[in-house]
Amino acid sequence: EAQVTQNPRYLITVTGKKLTVTCSQNMNHEYMSWYRQDPGLGLRQIYYSMNVEVTDKGDVPEGYKVSRKEKRNFPLILESPSPNQTSLYFCASSWGSRDTQYFGPGTRLTVL
Amino acid sequence: AQSVTQPDIHITVSEGASLELRCNYSYGATPYLFWYVQSPGQGLQLLLKYFSGDTLVQGIKGFEAEFKRSQSSFNLRKPSVHWSDAAEYFCAVGAVRNNDMRFGAGTRLTVKP
Predict the structure, then answer these.
(1) A90: nearest CB among B43, B49, B104
(2) Of B77, B82, B87, B79, which is closest to residue B108 (Cα–Cα)?
């Protein structure tokens, strides 16, 4: 089944404790992206990747890192999480930046 | 960079009534336009998209949208709403000149029986 998976689905952590949210897709898509969703703000793009080893900042990249060492994986790293990063995070993949994006189920992160 | 506005935060319609959700974008060239739907607790699913050609686009679940360049709009319509259409709807815009994607704040649709 074609899908985008994210782990964990729920995470509660404390300020400053490094964490990684994994994202994997099995569709051989080249374009992958991370978004955060906050009430009243919709989805805001954090980082995207056009292909392996090619990443670029989206609208709200501060406080986040990403890597794309393999085509299928695109982890989101929070080196020192802060409470303002409490949000619902979505990973998405597509063939290109202008193609239909397929979204993962979301990761709800709470930073205390 | 491109941007998108969804003026209506929340809309309530009766089942069987028609629906129009508004989307306005800002971009200097022809954008790539999308409508996504998010059911409660779910990820997003594409309803339809516009790249070029016919300005009236048909999507899944009986939805359609019309691109109006003069009004910088891409409104989503459905002639008869079903209770299962209750969800949050997002308009998104991509650009020719870059690879990022901008989403609107979303419109939450409530369907009354």
Answers:
(1) B43
(2) B87
A103 touches chain B (CB under 8 A): yes
List of chain A residues whose C-beta atoms are within 8 Å of the C-beta of residue B43:
4, 90, 103-106
Structure tokens belonging to residue B23: 């989307």
Q: Where are the beta strands (DSSP E) in A1-112?
A: 4-7, 10-13, 19-25, 31-38, 42-51, 54-57, 65-66, 76-78, 87-94, 102-103, 107-111
Distance from CA of B75 to the nearest CA of A (A): 17
Q: What is the pLDDT of residues A40-96, one digit of tens each?
A: 899 999 999 999 999 999 989 999 999 999 999 999 999 999 999 999 999 999 998
The DSSP symbol for B83 reads G
A24 neighbors A79 (Cβ within 8 angstroms): no
Of A42, A92, A105, the CB nearest to B90: A42
- CA A93, A98, A100, A105 dihedral sign is positive
DSSP label at residue A17: -
Phi first, then psi: give them for residue A84, nearest 5 degrees: -75, 0
Query: Cβ contacts of residue B101 below 8 Å, gap of 6+?
Result: A33, A45, A48, A58, A97, A101, B92, B93, B94
Question: What distances in angstroms separate CA A22 from CA A92, B54, B67, B101, one per listed residue?
Answer: 12, 39, 36, 21
Mean pLDDT of the region B24-40:
89
Q: d(Cα A61, Cα B102) in Å, to the nearest integer?
A: 14
